[in-house]
Write a structure and sequence with these properties.
Number of helices: 9
Radius of gyration: 41 Å
Strand content: 35-45%
Distance between the termini: 68 Å
């Protein structure tokens, strides 16, 4: 007998319904003191044996404990330790217990900065991190007495109590607030966290804004501990002895620097509690703590010259290491440190000794300065020199004596005495720009160590003048400096640095004093010496930019010394920060200060050592320095006053357009002008493009040659010209392309001429009077924008139905890939309808390359674009990417502008060219104060955005513009870039620049969108067009898009019109239907829609998709035409499928569609690759040739099974390897059975490639003799491709032509309507739903009529009493019959 299972578990089920409580009705908890009565096990008899059923105790079910605690409010009951199944095996009582962290109290002290508007009332949150552990987000807040929100006041310090687990060493914290208004901006100084249990403290400095309106626009920051390794420290006792003469004391601030065998200390300020120091005949004792530099060898002492009596007579200095009392050093001086006494120096370098009576012997150095022999080369200014050795320098020494120095063509000699320097590495020479004629042309400087009889030479050959050359009055030269070449083209080596100095935004922050900076290298790398920042304005709240050169590599910098000479009225200066960027390395270091440099403010210091905030260090793209010499020919009228520009092309890319300008009167007849530029790394430069804009009188220019030298590698390149750049001379061109000669360039590329024929369309008003420009793109770069001025066929250019021919001279481009053409929008009738552009290289037998357009280039027609890129696949919509740009103008007085603003996006794969920001999406009055303007731009895909160039042309009154930030969104790649600017773009503000280069300050990944290309056909009926606003919504298997507005600058949806649009929306998968309609507004809003074609971009195409769908593959660069990928079917599978479809009546329509597809496939047989039998035929052919023993193998295209003229090179390579007639350096063109050219276009047939024979066969690789014969018959331009051209083509292919990653796979969906969308026509509906159909002219089926709905009545079923009365939209106007009404489908679904 067996006990029923239901009876056994019934008590347990009844207990589930009972509320667990004790006798008083209280819930059972751990604290109630009553244990639940255990449930007796239920016995079960089975097969004559007793067994115990598993008992279920719901009160001790671990899965219900949380429920009981939440429902009854008590503590958790102890879980049962009994086993789930009663058995003789004992239960395990051991289990792993998770280690819990005990809670501790943290004291969080938050210091708010003392800046203006630094306070905030926003909610502040803190999260602490310690390795893998962290303390969850805590809100920092306190209660207020008046009930108002808690406020972090300006300059306040608040302490908060935060409880959390003891996580140990806190490595970083994340601080944030939720304020989105400008009033919520918060300047955080630092946060200190104390663990009250262990008494450990951690300090997290910030010194930054948390604001959406300041600096980098961040409201969340992660702060780190300063993990800089600390050196061994010690305490030094410094005793100074002031002399006993009248006026020997000083009121200035005194500093010392200790030089030891193990390093150099920072500059140490000597202060003590007594305060009244450095008085006459007194000794002052100072104790300083700094790094242990070991045995001292030298001491540098100086003062800043501040106070009423700054002059100081220093007798000696005694330094004692307090941790090593035996280390005591004596530094004898006995000299004045005063501007008006002795040699006028405010500093001394003293040699140390352990003998108090020994005096350090100074060494004599003789300096010879040679002034150049040029007009105005002499100077009346005061000159200074600093001599640098490995670990020492002389400081800035004046070069003056009783003679009249620095006259034209003269040599001046000076003697300097200082401690021994060792081997001299470099010098810095400068002047103070004083006197009536301060400009100075310095030829060279020699320094002689008199004791060692060693001479060091420093070649200069440049101007030190604020009005000539590069405008700098100081330069740094390395020993033996100067490159190769003659004196006119000798490059001076220098490491460039960009220094940005920001003055604080506090009252009286600006200064009129002379400011200097000293760059100190890390790891004992020396320093730059004192660099005077001559051209700075240092006005309140502004940033001054300086470009300086140093002869030594100091990056990364250890610290920066900055100060001023306390001269002029209002010399006090509030310094915010200094940012230094190493141009060659791309390292950008930030040195915050936020303190006064003033004798009457704070600690009265007028110079400070400021250290880097490593958390702000950025690594930007490194630049390469070039020295460019431009030689103007020595002939009559050869000079020009126009602005000269330069673009350099290399095998790794090209530079931006560089304007060649400096302070000299450049480009005069017979003159050589020198320029220093910095560009991205372009590799080996193989050509340049140089020209001018033709502005000003006397713009004609005869260029002799251009020389360039890479200052790092010392490689020099020459570009020979010897031609006019003038509209009235030679061929009338003002732009020339020149091929390079130099290292790495074996054979210079030839300069060729391209014939460009521009066909204007036949539309009404198709002609234009605007200025047209064109740019040709090929494998070896581009021609740049060339103005089409002189037509060879018509005087009045670009008229309706007219063909204008132009000639463009450029370095050969190889195979052409695309053309960019546009106009400037000038003139009364600027709109232009372009039919096509035909390009041909003169002197070659290649066919014309045609780039179709058939679109408007007009602001008020089509999509409003004035510039279009035309590719060989004749589909410009598929070759562009949508960029959504938001430009925010600052909220300061006069921030808006009426000038024309332009933008250039630069990425990994090139740049977009200059894009005019003409029409904003949200406003007609652009770039007003405090406003954000949105623009939608179509341009080529440049890959990941790395930087942008934005500026304006300074036209109109009020051209000055304060740009706050720019946001660029790329929906196709789900990327969002933020570029912070916060500066003026104006000729009379800041640095006077109207164009600025910005790098991304923030990057956010967003939702990816795909492109939909829409083609809308309006029927050719009376009144078919509409003036209403048309919208569309796309439905797919994965969802639906938002409502998309269809419209552009053209007058859309006219009768018999075909309108094209491109929209970006979410990927909805395979399209199923669309909803299209309009708002019924306007006169004549009724619309007769014929059909819509939607081409959807596929982000990923699998092999199954490629074999099952009709996909169009397009490439914007290096494909001559679009390649149609059709399903490849085996003949046997087709026959078997036909038999299957014939066996059922329900598949009648599918049979017809199958045969239609087969017919379409047979019509496109030239684009289909038949694979069956290839291998067998190839093997048979190979065996046959082997038997013959022929040296030349021949086969036709049919032998390989190839019937397509668009066979890709990869597929051909696979076939040829199978056939064993392919070599890696050959591309063999195939011919079909009729002998016509089959896979390779004539443009592809470069020399070195085998040609097909006349009988339709292709030969094996030709012999060297035959190749030489063909090479001699080839054109010179084609011959050049075998040498340098082919190498450059391989190097540039990735940069100038789209790679496989840029292929665009498009899937087509047809939606046939043939119905009115009008309130007065048909069913009075203005919105219809259309289902996908086959291509127009083919029927489609649905399995069930119940799933078909009428667009006239959305949501209701569509029925018809008689299927014979139903007309298919696929064949308008014709009835069709069917024995079953279920096979009838309306196209308006």
């Amino acid at each position: 007998m067996t006990t029923r299972f239901d009876d056994a578990v019934a008590p347990a089920r009844r207990m589930k319904k009972a509320r667990p409580s004790d006798s008083l009705g209280k819930p059972l908890t751990r604290t109630s003191g009553i244990k639940p009565k255990p449930i007796s096990p239920i016995m079960r008899v089975e097969n004559g044996r007793r067994s115990c059923l598993s008992t279920y105790d719901q009160l001790h079910d671990p899965h219900l404990q949380e429920f009981y605690a939440r429902k009854f409010g008590g503590a958790l009951l102890p879980t049962s330790r009994s086993c789930s199944r009663t058995s003789s095996r004992p239960c395990s009582t051991t289990s792993k217990t998770k280690k819990t962290l005990t809670d501790v109290l943290y004291l969080v002290t938050v210091a708010t900065g003392g800046r203006r508007n630094a306070a905030t009332e926003a909610n502040v949150f803190l999260r602490m991190k310690a390795g893998k552990r962290q303390i969850s987000k805590k809100k920092l807040c306190k209660r207020t007495d008046d009930g108002k929100p808690f406020r972090f006041g300006r300059g306040s310090r608040h302490t908060f109590k935060v409880r959390g687990p003891d996580v140990g060493m806190i490595s970083s914290i994340i601080i944030e607030h939720d304020g989105i208004q400008k009033e919520d901006s918060w300047f955080l100084e630092e946060i200190e966290i104390t663990n009250t249990k262990s008494n450990k403290k951690w300090l997290f400095p910030c010194h930054q804004w948390l604001s959406l309106y300041e600096n980098d626009c961040q409201i969340t920051r992660e702060l780190y501990l300063d993990c800089t390794p600390k050196c061994a420290t010690t305490e030094y006792e410094v005793v100074t002895v002031t002399g006993d003469v009248r006026g020997a004391g000083t009121d200035g601030n005194v500093f010392v620097v200790l030089y030891g065998k193990h390093g150099i200390t920072d500059r140490l300020h000597l202060v003590n509690r007594r305060g009244d120091c450095f008085e006459r005949d007194k000794s002052d004792v100072f104790v300083v703590q700094t790094m242990d530099v070991g045995q001292l060898v030298k001491l540098h002492v100086e003062h800043d010259g501040s106070g009423h009596e700054p002059g100081w007579l220093l007798e000696r200095v005694v330094v004692t290491d307090l941790k090593h009392s035996k280390r005591k050093y004596y530094f004898s001086c006995g000299q004045w440190l005063a501007k008006d006494k002795a040699d006028g120096l405010l500093y001394r370098d003293l040699l140390g000794s352990t003998d108090p009576l020994e005096k350090g012997k100074a060494r004599k150095y003789k300096v010879c300065v040679f002034t150049g022999d040029k007009r105005g080369a002499g100077t009346d200014a005061n000159a200074f020199i600093t001599i640098f050795a490995d670990a020492a320098d002389t400081g800035e020494r004046g070069l003056h004596n009783s003679k009249s120095n620095f006259e034209r063509g003269k040599m001046d000699e000076f003697v300097l005495r200082c401690p021994p320097l060792g081997e001299i590495k470099r010098i810095r020479i400068s002047h103070d720009n004083s006197g009536a004629s301060p400009g100075w042309f310095l030829d060279r400087v020699t320094v002689e160590d008199v004791q060692l009889c060693r001479v060091y030479e420093f070649a200069c050959h440049r101007w030190l003048s604020s009005t000539k050359g590069d405008g700098e009055v100081s330069m740094e030269v390395a020993a033996g400096g100067g490159g190769g070449g003659d004196d006119a083209t000798r490059a001076t080596a220098g490491v460039p640095y960009e220094i940005r100095v920001t003055t604080g935004d506090v009252p009286n922050a600006s200064t009129g004093a002379n400011v200097f900076v000293v760059l100190h290298g890390g790891d004992r790398a020396g320093n730059s010496g004192k660099v005077w920042l001559q051209q700075g304005k240092f006005r309140r709240g502004e940033t001054d930019v300086f470009n300086v050169e140093v002869a030594a590599h100091l990056t990364p910098l250890g610290h920066v010394t900055i100060g001023h000479d306390d001269s002029g009225l209002g010399a006090g200066w509030y310094l915010e920060k200094v940012v230094v960027k190493g141009v060659q390395t791309g390292t950008e270091q930030h040195f915050p200060c936020a303190r006064w440099l003033a004798s009457g403010e704070g600690d009265s210091l007028i110079s400070r050592d400021i250290h880097e905030d490593r958390r702000l260090r950025k690594l930007k793209k490194a630049m390469v320095p070039w020295t460019v010499w431009v030689h103007t020919s020595d002939c009559v009228g050869a000079g020009t006053d126009s602005a000269i520009f330069l673009v350099i092309y290399g095998n790794m890319g090209k530079t931006d357009t560089v304007i060649l300008d400096n302070m000299d009167d450049n480009f005069e007849s017979g003159q050589c002008d020198e320029f220093k530029i910095h560009t991205i790394d372009i590799g080996i430069p193989f050509k340049i493009r140089i020209g001018h804009n033709g502005a000003r009188l006397g713009a004609a220019w005869h260029l002799d040659k251009v020389q360039m030298e890479n200052t790092l590698s010392r490689h020099r390149y020459v570009y020979r010209c010897a031609r006019w750049l003038a509209t009235c001379e030679d061929d009338g061109q003002v732009v020339r392309e020149l091929a390079a000669e130099g290292p790495g360039v074996h054979d210079p590329l030839p300069v060729v001429r391209y014939s460009v024929k521009v066909h204007t369309g036949s539309r009404r008003g198709a002609g234009t009077d605007a200025g047209i420009f064109v740019c040709l793109f090929g494998e070896l770069g581009d021609t740049g924008d060339r103005s089409l001025e002189n037509s060879e066929t018509h005087r009045d250019k670009f008229e309706c139905q007219q063909v204008d021919e132009f000639t463009i001279e450029a370095v050969t481009l190889g195979r052409l890939s695309k053309v960019r053409i546009g106009h400037d929008g000038s003139g009364a009738a600027a709109g232009w309808f372009l039919e096509k552009v035909v390009v041909k290289q003169e002197g070659t037998a290649t066919y014309d390359t045609t780039f179709m357009c058939n679109r408007w280039l007009a602001a008020h027609e089509d999509d409003g674009l004035l510039v279009r890129e035309l590719t060989l696949n004749n589909n410009d919509l598929h070759n562009t990417v949508t960029y959504r740009v938001s430009v925010k103008t600052g909220d300061v007085r006069g921030a808006g502008t009426d000038a024309n603003v332009f933008l250039t996006l630069c990425g990994l794969d090139g740049d977009t060219g200059r894009l005019e920001l003409r029409q904003a999406d949200n406003s007609n009055n652009k770039f007003e104060r405090g406003r954000t303007d949105h623009f939608t731009l179509e341009a080529v895909d440049i890959g990941r955005v790395e930087r942008i160039l934005i500026g304006h042309d300074d036209s109109q009154l009020g051209g000055a513009w304060y740009l706050d930030s720019v946001v660029v969104k790329v929906p196709a790649r789900a990327e969002k870039y933020t570029f912070s600017c916060h500066r003026w773009l104006a000729v009379d503000e800041a640095d006077g620049k109207t164009e600025v280069e910005l790098c991304p300050s923030d990057y956010v990944a967003g939702e990816k969108e795909v492109a939909y290309w829409l083609t809308v056909w309006t029927a050719d009926k009376r009144g078919a067009g509409t003036d209403a606003n048309v919208s569309l919504q796309i439905y797919g298997e994965s969802g639906k898009t938002d409502l998309l507005q269809l419209g552009n600058s053209a007058d859309n949806f006219k009768r018999a019109a075909i309108d094209k649009f491109k929209v970006n929306a979410v990927d909805v998968g395979k399209l199923t239907k669309i909803r299209v309609g309009h708002d019924g507004k306007g006169i004549g809003s009724g619309w007769f829609l014929d059909k819509i074609l939607i081409e959807k971009q596929l982000s990923q195409v699998t092999e199954s998709q490629a074999s099952a769908k009709h996909l169009e593959v397009t490439q914007g660069e290096d494909y001559d035409a679009a390649v149609k990928v059709q399903p490849q079917r085996d003949r046997t599978s087709v026959l078997s499928r036909k038999k299957q479809t014939d066996s059922s009546d329900e598949s009648h329509d599918s049979d017809e569609s199958h045969y239609d597809m087969r017919d379409a496939q047979s019509r496109n047989s030239s684009c289909v690759l038949q694979t069956r039998g290839r291998t067998e035929r190839a093997d048979r052919k190979k065996q046959k040739n082997q038997k013959r023993g022929s040296g030349v193998q021949k086969c036709t295209a049919a032998d390989l099974g190839v019937t397509s003229s668009d066979e890709s090179e990869e597929e051909l390579r696979e076939l040829y390897e199978k056939w064993d007639c392919f070599e890696s350096n050959h591309v063999v063109s195939l011919t079909d059975a009729q002998g016509q050219n089959g896979g390779v276009s004539p443009a592809d047939s470069y020399s070195g490639y085998d040609r097909s024979s006349d009988d339709g066969s292709c030969d094996r690789p030709v012999t060297s003799r035959r190749r030489e014969k063909e090479s001699e018959e080839a054109a010179p331009a084609s011959r050049s491709h075998r040498g340098r051209g082919s190498t450059l083509r391989r190097d540039l292919k990735a940069g100038t032509c789209n790679s496989d990653s840029n292929k665009v796979f498009v899937e087509k969906f047809w939606f046939v309507c043939n119905w009115w969308l009008a309130r007065t026509e048909d069913d009075a509906e203005i919105v219809r739903e259309l289902a996908t159909t086959a291509e127009p002219g083919h029927r489609f089926t649905t399995p069930d009529p119940r799933s078909v709905t009428s667009a006239a009545e959305p949501g209701h079923r569509f029925t018809t009493p008689d299927p014979r009365s139903v007309t298919s939209a696929a064949e308008p106007g014709h009835r069709f019959t069917t024995p079953d009404p279920r096979s009838v489908t309306s196209a308006a679904v």
